[in-house]
Write a structure and sequence with these properties.
This protein has two domains: 229 residues, 3-Layer(aba) Sandwich (Rossmann fold); 121 residues, RNA polymerase II/Efflux pump adaptor protein, barrel-sandwich hybrid domain (OB fold (Dihydrolipoamide Acetyltransferase, E2P)), CATH 2.40.50.100. It is built from nine helices and 21 strands. It is of the alpha+beta class. The protein is elongated. Helix 3 crosses helix 4. The two termini are 30 Å apart. Adenosine-5'-triphosphate binds next to strand 2 and helix 1. Keywords: ATP-binding, Cell membrane, Ion transport, Iron, Iron transport, Membrane, Nucleotide-binding, Transport.
Length: 360
């Protein structure tokens, strides 16, 4: 049994099936990210775990205690779960100190000290404790929301897109700070986000959600490099998906002969490469002659965007053609550092690093 076990959870709103059978195991002290497009059911799932709503069917067991199962239902305030919402949801009329200490009784001994300690833990200067929420930046407000959620000493923390209102730089530093903070406090965490990079960098375990169900659950590395299907592959980043003939641990495709990660597959399937696996080296049309075993392409588009640029190339040959018609039919879209991105019209030598992943 895991720290949190969700079994066959369903929830509908009238005709809308928000959750269509969710199974998930979360180990104690870990970080799980649930990522999926808008409307796929992420917030509904958090609300069920938090105890704001009951599932139509299925079971929620937290730390060995049943939270929801048929008629059994433990209300939110008895679950020991903290929730930080997207907008922080601070009380505008209360000071920062009273926001943080909201869950503690006003006259409770040591309240002020505990509030100051929590402010310190989340990296807030105690000078702001007297202020009101509107006098704080977005990042500071999120820290207050986190401190308030931590004040109740939760055994599980639920974060519902808590960084989405922050700008890019602050977003990644907050994400890192929050991850560290929760890890140091030993709090098991579930983060909901629609940002794939955020999910991959934050979590030990990522669940990709679509239409109320999980498409795949695994480590960030596994999901990124070994997605089950094209949907998961493309949801988690740019992907090059090409038809191939697979045998003996290799794929024959428009990129030539490439090692694959399934030694036992022997069929026609789609393989996936991440764009960063395709390397380009500048050459010239003359450089192509006398090297039939090498793969060449012509740059057809280059979108300059500073550090990372988008480069489209059209293949010019295939050293090991499975199907001559496929050669050059689809341009490859790659990301390259701006400093070394080739120009439109240039001929480049193409090679592949690592193995390709065979999709289902
Ligand atoms: N209280 C409700 N009444 C009716 N329909 C609802 C209710 N709450 C959610 N839904 C519907 O359930 C589905 C899942 O909604 P949910 O808010 O869980 O998605 P989400 O993945 O969190 O979306 P977003 O990323 O946009 O916040 C949506 O179709 C939504 O319209």
């Amino acid at each position: 049994m895991s720290f949190l076990d969700l079994t066959a959870l369903t929830r509908s709103y009238g005709p809308v099936r928000a959750l269509a059978g969710i199974d998930l195991a979360v180990e104690a002290g870990t970080r799980t990210a649930i990522v999926g497009p808008s409307g796929c059911g992420k917030t509904t799932l958090l609300r069920l775990i938090a105890g704001f709503e009951a599932p139509d069917s299925g079971r929620i067991v937290l730390d060995g205690q049943t939270m929801a199962d048929g008629a059994a239902f433990v209300p939110a305030h008895k679950r020991g779960i903290g929730l930080v919402a997207q907008d922080g949801a601070l009380f505008p009329h209360l000071s920062i100190a009273d926001n943080i200490g909201f869950g503690m009784a006003r006259g409770e001994a040591g309240r002020a000290e505990r509030v100051a300690e929590l402010a310190y833990i989340v990296g807030l200067d105690k000078a702001i404790l007297k202020r009101r929420p509107h006098e704080l930046s977005g990042g500071q407000q999120q820290r207050v929301a986190l401190a308030r959620a931590m004040a109740c000493k939760p055994r599980l923390m639920l974060l519902d897109e808590p960084f989405s209102a922050l700008d890019t730089g602050l977003r990644s530093s907050m994400r890192k700070a929050v991850a560290e903070l929760l890890e140091n406090a030993g709090i098991t965490t579930i983060l909901v986000t629609h940002d794939q990079a955020e999910a991959l960098s934050f979590a030990d375990q990522v669940a990709v959600m679509r239409e109320g169900a999980f498409s795949q659950v695994g480590t960030p590395r596994d999901l990124y490099l070994r997605p089950k299907n094209r949907m998961v592959a493309e949801f988690l980043g740019d992907a090059i998906v090409i038809p191939a003939r697979i045998a003996g641990g290799f794929a024959q495709c428009s990129l030539g002969r490439i090692a694959v990660d399934s030694a036992d597959r022997r069929d026609v399937a789609r393989i996936m490469l991440r764009p960063e696996q395709v390397l380009l080296k500048r050459t010239s049309s003359e450089g192509m002659s006398g090297t039939p075993d090498m793969l060449f392409a012509e740059v057809t588009e280059m979108e300059f965007a500073g550090a990372v640029c988008t480069v489209a190339v059209r293949l010019l040959n295939n050293p090991d053609p499975p199907d001559a018609a496929a050669i050059g039919s689809t341009p490859l879209i790659l990301k390259k550092p701006g400093i070394e991105a080739p120009a439109v019209g240039e001929v480049v030598r193409v090679s592949v690093t690592g193995t390709a992943h065979v999709l289902e």
